[in-house]
Structures are given as C-alpha cells and as structure tokens.
Amino acid sequence: MGEIEVYIYKIIIENFRSIKKLEWKPNKNVNVIIGPNGCGKSTLATALDYLLNPYIQWYNRTLSDIDYYDRNTSNTILIEVWFKDLDDFIEDDGELYFEHVDENDNISENGKELVLITRFKAGPDKKPIHSIFSNGKEHSFKQVHKGIINFKYIESERDPLKELSFVRNSVLSKFIHHDNLNVLIQSIIEEFNNTTTACLMKDPDFKLALENLGNNFANFNLISDDEVAISLEATELSESKTLQAFSLVFKNKNTEKYIPIKYQSKGIKNLMLLIALGEMLKETGILFLEEPEQNLEPFMQRKIIQNITDTIKGQIFLTTHSIEVAKMHEFENIFLMRDGEIRPLPSLEYVDNKFKKKIEQYAKIDLISGLFSKGVLLVEGEADLSGLSIFSKKYKKGLEYNGVDLIMGGGKDEIYKYAKFFSECNIPCICLVDNDADIERLLNNFMKNQVKCLILILPKDYETAIISMQVFQDCWKELFEEIHEFKKYKDDYLKPFRPGSSKSYILKDKYNNNLQEIEQSKSLEQLINLLSDNEIKEFQREFLHINLAGIPNAKYVASYLVSEAEEKEIEDFLAVEFKNMFNLIGVYVDSNFVCEDSKRCVIHKAVNPLFSYADICEKCAYIRKGYNNVLNVRGE
C-alpha cells in the first residue's frame, strides 16, 4: 500500500454533549481552535475520538445520558466525519466504501470528488454503531480501517508518563515499535535467564540454600536427585512486560547521572511527549492535541509549536488558551469556537487592504489577544489605552471582572475597522470615543460599513475625565512638576497657550491678551496665578493632551493618581464617566450583577430596539438621538 495522506474534510456533530449541531470543514494541514472554557473544544475532540480511536472497546460499552445534548436521550447522537485523499484506503474493494460528491458536497454519481463517510450513531438505547456510509448502506467501520487513518487524541488531562512508557498503544511504543523488536526482546529475556542464574549461583549462601531445597524435595522421589535438579528462571517475562519495565531517563544539562522521567518537571514531561508525537506522526496521521502549552514558558511554547508543525506531515488540530501558540499561525489557520459552533476568522482583506497591511506588520498580537477575551474595548488614543487599564483595576466591576480586553483601535479613521473585524468574529465589541467636533463623521463610518458594535461617547474626552477627579485636583501641580520640571521644560508649559499646538480657544485668547506675562512666568505657580478657575482646567486638559498623552506618561499619570488615592485611603475616586462606562460594558458582555438595574439597563435597548421595559435605567448613559447603538455616557 502506498503512502496514505488521509485528512478530515468535513465534520458533522449532532446532539453530542455540549454540541447541539455543528458542521465544519477544517484545513487540510493546521487547525488552531481557540475559544472560552466550556465552548465545546473538548467535546469536539472526544467526538472524533469516539469515532476514530481503534482502541476503544465498544462491543461491551454503552453511552451515558451525559453524552447526549441536554441529557435528552430521545435524540440520536450523530458524529460524521468525511475524509479525502484516501485512494489507497482498501486495495481491492475501495470503491465499495467511497462516495462521489459534487462541488456542493451532494452525493452524486456524477460527482468528481471521492470521499469516505464514517459515522458514529447512538439512539435512545445508548448503544453506539460505527459504520462507513456508502451507496445508501451502512458498512462496518472496522478497527483496521481506523488504524489506517491513524488518528491520535492527546487530551488536556494527559498522562505523559503513560504515553512515554511501553504500555500498550502508548505514543512511545508506537513510534519505537518495528518488526524485529519482539525478536530482540525475546533474545534479551533468554540472555537474562542464562546469565542471571549463573551470577546468582556464584553466591555461596544462595547456592547452598537452593541445593538444600532441592535435596529435601528429592527425598520425595518427585524430581531428579542431581545437583542441578532445581534452578531459577524468569518465566513470567514476556515481550510486553519486559518493555514496560523500562523507563526513559535523562541526563539533565548540569548533571552526570541519569534521572528517570518520573522525577523530571511537568514541563519536561510535556515537552518530551510533544516531541515523541511528532516522531510518531512524522509521515502520516491525524493529531488532535489539547493545550500544547501546558507547563511551558512562552519561548518553549513557540519552539515546540514550530517543531510540531515542521515535523508532522499529517493533519493537526490544536486547541489552546495561549496567545503565544496562536500567534505562531496565520489567520486562516485559526478558528474561533463559541457556543458549540466553529467559524473561521474573517479575512483581513474583508476589512480592507490597508488594515491587512497594518495588522500583518505590527498589530497581529492585538487582534489575537482580543480573540481570547469575552469582549473587546477599542479606544482611540494611547492615553486611554494606558490609563483605563490601570483605573479599571481599581474598580470592583472593571474590565478584568468582565473579561474584556483593552485594545487601541488606531484613531477615528481606524477604530471602526477593528470593530468590524471583531464583530464578524461574534465577539462583543465596544468602541470608546471622545465627543469631538467631528464625532458625526466617525459615526457615519460605522453606519456606512455596517459595523455591529456598541459605541460609547464620553461627555468630552479622556483628559476632561481625568481633571474631573478630586484626587487629580489635589496633586496635579506636583504631578506635572515631577514629570516636566518647569525650569527645564518651560516650553512644554507654554504649549497649551500657543496657537501652533493648542486647541483651546480660551487659552489662545488668554495668550494673545497676556503674552508678556505668560512668557515671563518663572514658575508653574506664577503661571497659574494668571488664570481663572475655568482657564486652569483648560490648561490642565491641554497639558495632559499635549505633553502626557503617550503610553509611558499616561501610564505614569494614572499610576500616580491611584497611588495618591491609596495613600489618602480614598476608595471612590474614579471619574463618574469611567465608572458608568465600566458598568455599561459589563451589562453589554452579559456579566451578572453589574448593578441592581442590570436587567433593565439602556444597553438592552441599544442592542435590541424592540426591548421594552416599564422603566429603562438611564443612570449611566442615554441613547444618542438618531442612532440605535450609540450611547452618550453620563459624567459629572
């Protein structure tokens, strides 16, 4: 039989565990499946194992009601897998098993594609039937057929010690086994018996005890009475038992003695198992591996994934909760699983070519990290990105509580593109934008591109929210001086007034009318003495926006304010709009108990215009006139 390059072409699952109905066409080579806990990844793997594992003894086994979706045993479980590239599946009567299908996967005599359709079915009697479906008939799906397909499932709760021993059907035994191995082991057993007895008999005490035993037994006239009538031999040693007595041992990097694998770290055990899997499936086979990253540092995760994909020539399915593992693969190899359904990621070209180029060059990690979250919050600027992540940790129902990832969306002309990508992935997406003069242009971009997401508009901007906090007003002068000492960076303090850098009409007018006094200020105190209370707040906002909006400084400002609040034991110090925003996000991603009014929140009206409630809660925001999915966040 020639080399078989079988691969799974299509998977259909119905009424199995957490999956009601699933149909999926995986890639021929690598498939990386990501998704939250409980979404069905392990159910998918178990379904394939139930159908394709040749070593599960089904003849004396029935299913449990747990195997049925919603434990409803009145439904029929169906696990159906279609294979392609199996021209040599059975040398003599392969046509008996194959079906012809057309380009739409309809079974047809005129179809140009050949597929092998295998099935696992179980009805109310809980007795599974394995079959090959062909020509309208069910043929027996035998163990030998499954062996040819060579499917291997390594689950997340794996036992590397078992798989790296010589127990039956282990990974180690499979890739080391060859035709002459049994002969070799038998010769080892014979040599052991021949040499061991001679060695033992060299010990005078051992020899005397054995001779006395033989002589006494000879008195009963049942055995020979010569000197060698009784001896020793390892009669219970078989090829399999002999192999099982051996264990892999390693010399660690800085030691001279061998250490058994049993006493190696969990990471080393997992790593060795993954390497052995690569060797076992070097030529052909299908591997379903859960969470390859277990107990491995990020560098090792990347290295072993590269090793697996380079070594294994067959089809690979990986499930992972590691961004490191996911980012090793192209977007077309990554599939998102949620609520028992699998979908490919939208192509980057679907958004547009400029977006694709940007992501491939330096923003791939942002998109991938968002795929592992319960929802994503997209922000326009670096200050929002740095500061909100810090403030969120100080709020009891912040982003981390709600499982929301914070991502920079690249400004008003780019943020809708990120939103379009995540909404196509069916991941709840929230866009946070400032209420600038050109806000309508941004909102029109969302509408024109039919982006489904929630848009939150701050009352003004991020910097205005910062200066609304009392803790900021209590320490802002010390904060500014610590980052930009007035004597060294006086020019930075004058930028909020100068026409070339300032966006504040109030401060620019002040500058025009008081140019000499402002330019001659020798300290921050002297400068602010020239300003009214309203002008001081304008100055604070502009200074933050011009000088402290980058990631390092914005992070420093947020950390400074948090530190001040903790030192003064102020628990409730965040800006009102920030707290309202966190609450709204929590309701949107369906976190429980965000607040006592969660069930009648205005969010539900924004998501579903048909939502009706006697008294919709609008404490945190109100729907922007003319839009359904846009909320104006309430502030001070």
TrEMBL record:
Gene3D superfamilies tied to this protein: P-loop containing nucleotide triphosphate hydrolases
InterPro entries cross-referenced by the UniProt entry: ATPase_AAA_core, Bact_Antivir_Def_Nuclease, P-loop_NTPase, TOPRIM_OLD
Residues in ATPase AAA-type core domain copies: 30-325
Lineage: superkingdom: Bacteria
Pfam families reported for this sequence: AAA_21 (PF13304), OLD-like_TOPRIM (PF20469)
Domain OLD protein-like TOPRIM: start-end pairs: 371-436
Signal peptide extent: none
Name of the protein this chain belongs to: DUF2813 domain-containing protein
The species this protein was found in: Acidilutibacter cellobiosedens
Organism classification: Bacteria, Bacillati, Bacillota, Tissierellia, Tissierellales
